[in-house]
Amino acid sequence: MQNGNHASLVKTLAKSIKDRENGNHSAETKEKPESHPINGGDDSKSYAQNSSYQKGVIEAAKREIVQAIKEKLDIEKVWPRRFVIADFGCSTGPNTFLAMQNIVEAVELKNKSLQQSPTIDFHVFFNDLVDNDFNTLFKSLPSHPRYFVAAVPGSFYERLFPKASLDLANSSYALHWLSKVPKEVGDQNSVAWNKSKTYCSGSKKEVTEAYFAQFRKDLNRFLDARAEELVGGGLLVIQLPGVPRGALPFNTGAGFIQELLGPCLFEMADLGFISHEKVHSFNSPMYFPSIEELDLAIKGNGHFTAERIKILNHPMQHLPFDAKMTCLQTRSIFEGFIKDHFEIDIVDQLFDLFAKKLEESCSIFYQEIRKDVDLFVLLKRVC
Amino acid sequence: MQNGNHASLVKTLAKSIKDRENGNHSAETKEKPESHPINGGDDSKSYAQNSSYQKGVIEAAKREIVQAIKEKLDIEKVWPRRFVIADFGCSTGPNTFLAMQNIVEAVELKNKSLQQSPTIDFHVFFNDLVDNDFNTLFKSLPSHPRYFVAAVPGSFYERLFPKASLDLANSSYALHWLSKVPKEVGDQNSVAWNKSKTYCSGSKKEVTEAYFAQFRKDLNRFLDARAEELVGGGLLVIQLPGVPRGALPFNTGAGFIQELLGPCLFEMADLGFISHEKVHSFNSPMYFPSIEELDLAIKGNGHFTAERIKILNHPMQHLPFDAKMTCLQTRSIFEGFIKDHFEIDIVDQLFDLFAKKLEESCSIFYQEIRKDVDLFVLLKRVC
Questions:
Q1: Which residues does the annotated region (Disordered) include (chains A, B) (predicted)?
Q2: What residue in B sits closest to A137 (Cα-Cα)?
Q3: Residue B113, exposed/middle/buried by CB under 10 A (0-12, 13-18, 19+)?
């Protein structure tokens, strides 16, 4: 999972405030991407142990992938060489292994369905930021994968592979992490200042526009890089959380979690654990797009044809809401992020508070989670 | 760095002893390779901070590599695609980056010397065992390498890449680590029992023969795997410690270090820190071959032509002996290995003792290190 640069935001905001104090309102900060990986390792608070929702997305996408590869992959072009797959934003597993296995099986299925199909060597590359816990990823590899394994450290908003070296690229639940929070949402002098919220809730038009502009810019960079790396006709498969047409992030499960996290942070400030200023400068670097917004961004890029953009039917949509699991999942994603921003370890207290609020909100959450939307996107590199 | 499986040896020996006790002398143990990586991280006891000798080997090999690539690489075959390099047994850096940079520069030099040479994308793969500290490797990557980076976890005695996917393979100071210690050197009933030593000192013919047989078997597996992975005409560059013609490992610096380590272990047993039995079952999984032995093993494999096998002129050969540095280097390599074998942490006491013995032996060591031999091997994949 790639989460961009919350600390960068903090620094940007800090400098912005300092610049204003010094009368230098127009000063631009250097926006070098930073990273705050989700929880590594394999313990009870790790992402590896708390990513069953994301697993569900991969399960839901399997049928789509099988169909996509059957209908859209020009496999004859691959013969007689190897088939190269990369997962962008792989995190520490085990979901990435499931996603890769699904793709390998789908390609093998298509290959075997054709006459005189040769055996294909699969080469699978796992990508995430340099700070990702690759040691854990490697130690949890399947014992006998049907592919050769490699890992690639670095931001997927940049080039990571030689030209035309990939046959298929995948990204599951990663592209909603922005490379950075848009500067103006933390700027008290901007019309897009996100005053009372700590994420893009959708309640203020200018904030949403600033977030979407950043999302579109980032997606464009991602697509530009993958367009160079994929062979002509190569497939790009994306799954990410989105919003239904006309809905606000607040109405989705993923948004609601962040809606709850904000008041917890303000309460922590009221209790004196952290400063109110620090809470005001906290903004989540996530954006949940609609199908229409995605379509607009992809068409604007021009390197890919959108073969399919649809809403997945998540297997957990109809399960009762599990507050404990949701709390652990949220913590595994936000812990490093929060520690970096507040520069003191407040996560135990914060998530005790969050757990209580989550329990109290069970009934609301259970209704709202039905509006969760996981998007499936299939793109084909223009030859 | 790949060190095979000392714990596996221990288990083999333990089971062998138990089998003998049970009257089951012919029982074979399952010889699954295990790994005991050199010290990870980047602190004062890490391999990363204590591998200046190995760095010297890479520096000494640079001139050879430039010449080898100039004369032996069929670079026109690469056009217009990418050039793929893998370093087998990369450890945690920084030496591997230097080795890769030297190769990339040499290939670029050759490419530019030819008319109408296109720009080549370099793809560099860093390989080591799954237990290697890849997180440290990634965090210490050069900031703007002239190549795309990937890592491959796994034993280089097995296949790690798709068929014909590499243009050049390198292995610096890794192939002297055996996949396992030959069983018979720990077997009291064998003529090859290595009774009073803890490494292959060369003082007993049967022990040396058993070690060489294992080295040859391992090298053969390495060459078989690389032969599949390299393109026809692809180059394989190897550097490893060896022995001069007619000399014994005891006469080399690397051998002498192990010669000193043995008595330290026996002294630790006399002091009651560890059992004598455990020391008797301790054998180093390293072998330092001669040029003649290497030549024999390579010819026996048959997949490669030996373009060059020669002794390198190490830049540190004529420096005064540095006992402190040698102690830290030895510890960074053997620490994990020793902890695994003795199952208790005795390394601080052991290396205090070792440091004293090393200081006392300075004059001998300084004479003997002149006989250190670093071998450079250039092989070409038969088309």
A1: 1-47
A2: B130
A3: exposed
Digit-coded pLDDT (tens) for A206-248: 999 999 999 999 999 999 999 999 999 999 999 999 998 888 8
Residue at A215: amino acid letter: F
The answer to whether A152 and A86 have CB atoms below 8 angstroms apart is yes
How is residue B128 written in tokens?
């080591």
A 10 A CB-CB count for B307 gives 15
Query: What is the predicted pLDDT for the residue at A4?
Result: 37
Integer Cα distance of B224 and A333 in angstroms: 44
Q: Do B153 and A149 touch (CB under 8 A)?
A: yes
* Chain A residues inside the 8 Å CB shell of B141: 130, 153
pTM for the full predicted model: 0.85
Q: Which residue, among A43, A36, A40, A8, has the nearest Cα to A129 in the 3D structure?
A: A36
Give the closest residue to B36 by CA, choosing from B136, B177, B173, B198. B177
CA dihedral for B7, B10, B12, B14, sign (positive or negative): negative
Burial of A335 (0-12, 13-18, 19+ CB in 10 A): buried
User: What is the sign, positive or negative, of the torsion defined by CA atoms of B288, B291, B297, B302?
Assistant: positive
Mean per-residue pLDDT of chain A:
84
Q: Which residue of A has its CA nearest to B164?
A: A81
Report chain A residues whose CB lies below 8 A from the CB of B128.
Answer: none
Measure A46 CA to nearest chain B CA, in Å.
17
Spell out which residues of chain A touch residue B133, defining contact as CB-CB under 8 Å. Answer: 135
Using a 10 angstrom Cβ sphere, with 0-12 exposed, 13-18 middle and 19 or more buried, the burial of residue B165 is: buried
Phi and psi at residue A207, to the nearest 5°: -65, -45
Q: Is the pLDDT of residue A319 over 60?
A: yes
Nearest to B149 among A121, A149, A153 (CB): A153
Contacts of B135 in chain A (CB under 8 A): 133-135
CB contact at 8 A, B243 and B288 = yes
Label residue A124 left, alpha or beta by phi (over 0 means left) and psi (-120 to 50 means alpha): beta
A226 contact B CB<8A = no
Mean predicted confidence (pLDDT) in A55-62: 77
Q: Inform me whether the C-beta atom of residue A130 falls under 8 Å from chain B C-beta atoms.
A: yes
